[in-house]
Structures are given as structure tokens and as C-alpha cells.
Specification:
The protein has 552 residues and is of the alpha/beta class. 39% of the residues lie in helices and 17% in strands. Bound molecules: zinc ion. The site of zinc ion has 4 residues, from loops.
Amino acid sequence: MKITFLGAAEAVTGSCFLVETNHTRFLVDCGLHQGSPEEDRLNRARFPFDIDHIDFMLLTHAHIDHSGRIPKLYVDGYRKPIYMTKPTAELCGIMLPDSGYIQEMEAEWRNRKNNRAGRPKEDALYTMDDALKCLEIFQPVRYDEPFQPAKDVRVIMRDAGHILGSAILEIWVDEPEAGEAKATKLVFTGDLGNKGVPIMRDPTIIDGCDYLVAESTYGDRDHVETGNDVERFVRIINETIARGGNVIIPSFAVGRTQEVIYELNRQIDIYKDQLVPFMETPVYVDSPLAVSATKIFRQNTDCYDDEARRYVENGDHPLDFPNLYFTASVEESKQLNIDPESKIIISASGMCDAGRIKHHLKHNLWRPESTVLFVGYQAKGTLGRRILDGAKKVRIFQEDIAVRARIEYFQGFSGHADREGMLEWIGAMRKKPKLIILVHGEPDVLPKFSQTMEDRLHIQTQIAKLGQSIDLGAYVSRSRLAELVLTENALKRRIVSVTAKLDELQAELNLLAEQSKAAIHESKTGTERDEILAKFKDQVQKKTEEILANVR
Ligand SMILES: [Zn+2]
């Protein structure tokens, strides 16, 4: 069996792996590379495999960096099934068309530039329509139920606790050895969630595997304790409302927004008998994608953790409360900035580079009474990062905006397991993998994570490189290699000692033969010769036994 790493190798986006067995070829994820123009070129490059020879695909979860090139795969002619959980299929149903729309908008913007520069037109990577069409090959499966997408491959998807529908893939590949039935087990963590995150169950503990392909996003750090943070979260909101300002929460539309809604509902439940300002404050979810995603989250209560299910059972839907509003039209969105009443606005994009959040920042960043409350990671180069890093002035829609609002960062939500979380999850496996292949990590994080894993778990690791193939059949672990070298050395030493003994025996036997020959020459009678021969035979036997006594 061979795995080729076609994305998320020494990078955190573009997840795509090709697995080849003796009979079958399949893909795990087909995500969009995100970030720089170089990454965009990777998205546009031809797929480095023959699409007609791919038998099926497995999708770990709906995030665009794992699913975002599926429409391109479809446009290029792929029509075989793609297996994923039901919530992942539903979330892809809104996220891929949204991605298609963004691709079309970006192509339009580039083409205006191309036109002015006299350059040829470029097509969008794919369109909203392509994204809608590709959904026809989606095959939802249930968590924990085995299925067999090819004659030599069996799969079970387990809850990864990362976003709704996210899965860890347990894959058994039949590789009979000398006619005997034998399966090699391969596990992909996908993106592995954090323990104790709202709504999501904790990542499922896996019994074990032969080979593990593990994500490494937070391989060099541990999240801070979040206990007090929730209180801080509520305090920040209350203080802002008391000053008459707005709380602007830039948030990823899928996952993080629902976690924030959940947390607000939980706090309302906790403070229900007290007079707390934010109990009366309207909360607006202002992002079309977040609105659709929240609907999907609300419908899939069977994927909730125990706490979230208790809310549902008690008749309080954890993703709903009396002052929660969803804005649909752009008009309604604009109205939020005209109305002077204090409010909480949750809007996308999470890193402030696109979407309606930019309008809310434009209308609130300059107001000292307002607060911008970040709830997610802000990548280098984004508007969110500049604000968080303390910029005094930022440019939004060709206008300079002074930053006078209170800027806060709430670390309590994190979609990925941290270093300790990963170690604990692997440590809980009954059968430890022979090799852990590290993917989905920044180049400076991976070597640190690799070292930590080897030191703490004593399992060999390998950092996957982009385009690299690892042949698991030919793979020999470092400890096994050491064993083989030892055996080889022992064998060599043995050969040397046996040869020396045989040399010694040869010399002794020669000596005995010479002596016996001389004695026979000097003998006078037949009886005498018989006695010499008998004695010779006896001496040969004794010498041989004596010299070879210690040779095994
Ligand atoms: Zn993800």
C-alpha cells in the first residue's frame, strides 16, 4: 500500500491524499489550498493522478481546506462516489456553492484587472453551479457503521469532534500474506477536535492501527485553561453594553458561530434569575452562510454531546434564545448600523478579509464604546490580525478607519486538539501505530511535534513532503532495522568463530593423519595397522567433538 501526499504537507491547507492498494485507488479529502498566490496556482494545477483510475473518495469534514476542490474534481470528469457523514454532506451543500460564488467573484475581479492590462480572461476555478452539481455523487454514511467501498477496503467513520459531521477514518486494507487473510489498518485523524468544546462530542478514541496519518496544527502548543475565560467573555459583553457600545464578533460562519451562539444561550441559562445587561441585548447573526449552517446544526441533534442534548431534551434548544435574530438581506444588515441600540453582532468572515463583517468594523472600530471580540485564530496578513496586533488605523473600503474600540481576543474556542490533546488521544490507543505520518502543520511546528511524539510516545514519525509517496509495504521501522542489523552482526561474528574452529580442526586432523601415516609405514603386521587405524578413528572423533564442542 502506498500513500501520496498531494496537499496539507508541510502546510495547513489543501488536504488531499492518494492511497493505492494492490487493487484500488482512492482519495482522502480534496481541499482548497489557501493563503498566497502560490497556493492559488496549486489549486489551478492539473490533478497529479488519472481521475479515471480513482475508485472512490473519502471526505473527513466539510471545511473548505478539505472539501474545496471537489467541484474541480467533478468538472474534470470525476463521477465515482464520495463518502462522508450526513452532516458533512449537508454542510458541503451550502459551503461548496458559497465557495463557487467566491471563485466567480474573484475571477470577475481579476478579469477586470486583466482587461485593463490587455491580458487574456481567466476562468473561475469553478462556479456555484459546478459546486451544486457535484453534490450528486455524495454518499452519506453513518458514524460507527462499517462500509466497503471496494473489494479490498473497509471503512468506519468515527466522530472527530472538530465540526459537525467531522470524521476520523479507520481504514482496513486486505493484503493477504502467502495466501493467509491479513488486513493492514490505516487511520487518518482528519482535523481532530478539542475536548470539552460546546456542542461537539470529544474525539472518539480509536482501538489502534498499523499506520496513522495525523494532523499537527497545534503540535507545538497547549491551549490555555478556559475556565475563567467564559466569565471574561460575559464580562466584556456586559461592560460594552453598559457603555452603550456594540460587541462585534468576527467569526467563521460554520462551527465557530454556532459555538458562540451555544455559549451565549448557556450564559443566559446561568444568569436567568439575575439582572444582567446582555440578557436584554439583541444578538444578530449576520452572515448568510452562518444562517444556513446554524439551520443544519439545529437539525443534527443526534451528533451533539451530552450537555447539548440535555438542553434539547429539556425543551431549550441550545442554538436558540429569545433575543437571537438572523439577518437575511443586505438591507437588514445595513439597518444594524443605523439603529443606535446596543447589540451583539456575529458576522463573517472570521479573519475580517471579506463579507459583511467589514461593514460592521467600519461602523464600530472608531467608536471607543464598542468592542471587537475575536474568537478565532487570525492568520498573518489578514485585517483581523492587523487589528489584533494593535494597528491604530486600518483601511476598509478605501477609507481610513481609526481603531478606538476595545479589542479583545477570546481563546476559549478552538477547533483543533493541542499538543497534549494529540498525545493523549494517540496514547489511549491499545495497539500503537508503527509509524505516524505528520500532515496539516506549519513547517516550523512539524519538527517540534515530531520530536515530542518520539520522545513521549516512542513511536517513529515521518513528516510528509508535498508530492512524496510513502510505500507502507516496504516500510521497515527503525527498531526493526536495528534488530536486523544486530542479527546480521551476530551472524557475521558466528561465521568468523565457526571458520576459526574449522581451521583449527583441519590442522589437528592433518597432524593426526600425518602421525598415523608415519606409524602405518613403520608397522610390521596387519594387526598392528588395524590398531593404528582404530586409534586414528578414535582420535579424529575425540578431536572433532573437543574442538566443535562450543560451536552452535
Ligand atoms: Zn477543519
